[in-house]
Structure formats: C-alpha cells, structure tokens
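in:
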C-alpha cells in the first residue's frame, strides 16, 4: 500500500453484512451507516462500520451478492449520548464500487502520539503495545485512533513519548469482549488498528 499523502488512507474490500441505516446529518447532508465484513487469512473476520453520504448509497444499493471496494479514512467520534461505546470508530467512505476482487483490509496513518504508550503481555505471552494516535483532518479536527503493535515493534513503541509523530501501516480489526453492567454482562465490540509496520518520524 502506498504511503498516505493525507495521513489517513483506508482501503477495504468485503461483503455488505446488513442493511444501511440513518447515521446523522452534517452540513445539510444525510449520512448512512452499514457493516462491511472482511475475512482475514486466518479465517477470522472483521466487521467494520462504514459511513457514507446518502447520494453515494443511492448509486451502490448494496445487496450482499458482490464484494464492495471502499476507499476512505478511519475516523472517530466521541459518543456523549450515554448509549453504546464512548469512542465510535468507523470508516468514512470517499469512494465505493462493486468488484470481484479478493478481500482487502489495509490502512496507512500518520499522526501524533497523544497518550503514553503502554506495553503489556497477552495471556499467550506475546508482547503488545497500546498506542493512541491523533490524526489531523481538515477544519482543525482530529481523529483519535487506538492502535496496537506486536513484538519488537511493541518494545520500540513503548519508548516513544506523547507528541512524537508516527507513521504506520496495518489493518483495522474488530474485537468482541464482555463488559459488566448494572443489568448483567453486555457483549461489545472494540475497534483498533493492528500495525504491521510502525516507525517514529524523525
């Protein structure tokens, strides 16, 4: 995948996993959201939320019978409604088209470390580092994107500081987990960028 010139480029190819529903209105434009299912080589699957303008939804009319290619940006939204996850992660679609291509899930990011990276060990003994990356976009806004790196990359990332500029390439992954609530346990889904390569920009 080519390095991003905007600091945030995502390319996906997968199958539409459900009907689109209304998301929000911004600058007098309606936006809709739908899930895209992208298989991994391991056989697991990631289900990624896609947001796009109503006009683009009219041109594609997803029916689940074809693969859908999406080029866009990974974005975040701070959900203050009190319902669902506090940090919503989704792909904003700039381009959509049906295709017969193989599945794809790739992302390129350039951003700033905005929280001290945290190195930990998985139950299977693998080293993993959590990194929160702030990626700028137009109009003075930023997306705050949770990222992870593994092994030597994780050890390197754990030495970085808030304010360091980072470039990475990887994939978007969805991960289910159980959260305890007042009314019992609730199944939730977390989204993060799993970095295959990550470097500090000097």
């Amino acid at each position: 995948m080519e390095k991003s010139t905007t600091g945030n480029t995502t390319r996906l190819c997968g199958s539409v996993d459900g009907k689109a529903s209304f998301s929000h209105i911004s600058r007098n434009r309606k936006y809709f959201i739908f899930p895209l299912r992208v298989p991994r080589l391991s056989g697991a699957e990631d289900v990624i939320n896609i947001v796009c303008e109503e006009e683009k939804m009219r041109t594609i009319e997803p029916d689940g019978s074809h693969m859908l290619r999406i080029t866009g940006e990974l974005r975040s939204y701070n959900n203050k409604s009190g319902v669902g996850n506090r940090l919503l992660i989704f792909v904003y679609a700039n381009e959509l088209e049906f295709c017969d291509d193989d599945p794809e899930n790739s992302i390129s990011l350039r951003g700033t470390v905005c929280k001290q990276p945290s190195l930990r060990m998985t139950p299977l003994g693998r080293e993993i580092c959590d990194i929160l990356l702030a990626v700028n976009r137009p109009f003075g806004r930023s997306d705050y994107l949770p990222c992870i790196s593994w092994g030597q990359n994780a050890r390197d990332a754990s030495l970085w500081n808030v304010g360091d500029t980072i470039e990475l390439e990887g994939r978007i992954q969805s991960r289910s987990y159980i959260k305890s609530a007042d009314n019992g346990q609730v199944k939730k889904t977390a989204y993060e960028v799993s970095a295959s390569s990550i470097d500090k920009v000097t």
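note: The chain has two domains: 8-105, 107-200.
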